[in-house]
């Protein structure tokens, strides 16, 4: 898979094969300015620590199992099912508590995947490459996110499983793409970050859930905006250096990994579905492409990635079929983080 990597040198800047009319000097300077801004924001700006910036033992953040504030957010298709609505208030609270812990645990697992691949990516960078400083800041922040997510899981529902077992076992292999195929690895990063970012923004726009979950989402959204911004900037900057074959491969595989990332975060794993007590027919109908709410949520979660792939020349007549087949196709966002029309 080495032939798919970017043509990077370890000592000097790579020779750049550019699209016609591209102002390489200004683009290079703008990219470095972006990296400098992101690094300064992580080091001297808004940044958090899991056990410093969350008052875990505060009465406000207490999360007993019978807390009436446990409720499923409207963005979760399960909340609209007759099965969930017919549950007693006590059972609804139990389902919501376990469901939120399951999604949080999955988020923690995806953050650990980012660490696996991220360290391998950093080993391939040249000295003085400003990408090293910012991405190291990002990995540092991700360690706090992992601790934050895991502490929430431990306190709320330690019995949850999180992502499907087959996916977790594949993480070491996927992490190796950080050095073998970095452009694809950055697309995988977005597959883990964009869906949960979209869901958390939808929840917060709807008024939040519980003070503890809201505080965790506030922290995560603030720092994740930088992480997603870096992944977008990295792919935009390096797209002209990619071979046509690499762009074609990314155009075909990006919708697949977006579908996998979204499915792993939004759909309960087999173990967690059993723990929640969701009947099989409800599970099939709720998290199915035949469900318009689920299909819309998938498409909206991929809007920013579609726009990025379009700008980078990865959505062409040769690759659009993959986006349509996976259900990740749809309108392009006019700007990053544009609220979905349903939310608006």
Helix and strand layout, with pairings?
Elements (H helix, E strand, L loop, with lengths): L23 H20 L38 H4 L3 H35 L6 H27 L8 H11 L1 H4 L1 H24 L5 H28 L5 H23 L3 H7 L3 H7 L5 H10 L1 H9 L8 H7 L18
Helix pairs in contact: 1-4, 1-8, 3-4, 3-5, 3-7, 4-8, 7-8, 7-9, 9-14
* Assembly state: single chain
Total E-strand runs? 0
Report the total helices: 14
Name the helicity range. Answer: 55-70%
Largest beta-sheet characterization = none
Pfam families: AurF
Protein name: Diiron oxygenase
InterPro entries: AurF/CmlI (IPR025859), Ferritin-like_SF (IPR009078), RNR-like (IPR012348)
Organism: Rhodococcus baikonurensis
List keywords for this structure.
344 residues, 0% strand, globular, disordered N terminus, mainly alpha, Ribonucleotide Reductase, subunit A, single chain, 14 helices
Notes on the structure:
With 344 residues, this protein is mainly α. It has a single domain (86-326), classed as Ribonucleotide Reductase, subunit A (Orthogonal Bundle), CATH 1.10.620. The chain is 63% helix and 0% strand. It contains 14 helices and no strands. It has helices at 24-43, 82-85, 89-123, 130-156, 165-175, 177-180, 182-205, 211-238, 244-266, 270-276, 280-286, 292-301, 303-311, 320-326. Helix 1 (24-43) packs antiparallel against helix 8, helix 4 packs antiparallel against helix 8 (211-238) and helix 9 packs parallel to helix 14 (320-326). The longest helix is centred in the N-terminal third of the chain and has 35 residues, at 89-123. The protein starts with 23 loop residues before the first helix and ends in an 18-residue tail after the last helix. Residues 1-22 have low confidence and may be disordered.
